[in-house]
């Protein structure tokens, strides 16, 4: 398993990640579901170089690009997570989740991982529950219900 920091990706890798993020099956579960332009994407990646509170990685397994994991609002105590799989692959969610949890608790040394998921995103909710995340709160976001789930180390 390799984690490639977004700030070190080449043009082909950046283009690939953007195509995944803009894929309809991934976009529908994003807080900001609009398509992202290459210019916006490159600006975002450049901004990551100046931020300590965010980290984004392209995840590779056996030389294949399988998905993206990310950490936002990183503090000494917690981080909010995000992940999405290569839309052409199936069955990589657990691998991505293991990489994410390992990085959070071993490298970042946070005590709490936070996931925010749309209530109707059953697949994501099930994946988090499988890894012992527990629901801590429900809120509304643009007329959709959001569930906050946490995993304590």
Describe the fold and architecture.
This protein is α+β, with helices and mostly antiparallel strands and 153 residues long. The protein has five helices and seven strands. The protein has helices at residues 11-21, 24-27, 38-48, 93-107, 122-130, and strands spanning 2-5, 55-61, 64-72, 78-85, 112-118, 134-141, 144-152. Strands 1-2-3-4-5-7-6 form a seven-stranded mixed β-sheet, sandwiched between helices. A hairpin with a 5-residue loop joins strand 3 and strand 4. It is globular. The model has no long low-confidence stretch (mean pLDDT 95).
Q: What is the strand and helix layout of this fold?
A:
Elements: E1 2-5, H1 11-21, H2 24-27, H3 38-48, E2 55-61, E3 64-72, E4 78-85, H4 93-107, E5 112-118, H5 122-130, E6 134-141, E7 144-152
Parallel strand pairs: 4-5
Antiparallel strand pairs: 1-2, 2-3, 3-4, 5-7, 6-7
């Amino acid at each position: 398993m390799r984690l490639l920091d977004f700030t070190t990706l080449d043009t082909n890798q950046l283009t690939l990640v953007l195509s995944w993020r803009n894929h309809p099956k991934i976009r529908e579960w994003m807080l900001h579901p609009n398509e992202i332009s290459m210019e916006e994407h490159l600006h975002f990646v450049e901004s990551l170089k100046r931020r300590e509170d965010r980290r984004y990685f392209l995840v590779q397994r056996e030389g294949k690009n399988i998905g993206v994991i990310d950490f936002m609002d990183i503090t000494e105590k917690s981080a909010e997570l995000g992940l999405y799989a290569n839309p052409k692959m199936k069955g990589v969610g657990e691998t991505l989740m293991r990489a994410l949890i390992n990085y959070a608790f071993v490298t970042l040394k946070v005590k709490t991982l936070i996931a925010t998921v749309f209530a109707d995103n059953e697949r994501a909710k099930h994946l988090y529950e499988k890894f012992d995340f527990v629901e801590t709160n429900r809120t509304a976001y643009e007329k959709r219900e959001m569930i906050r789930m946490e995993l304590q180390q």
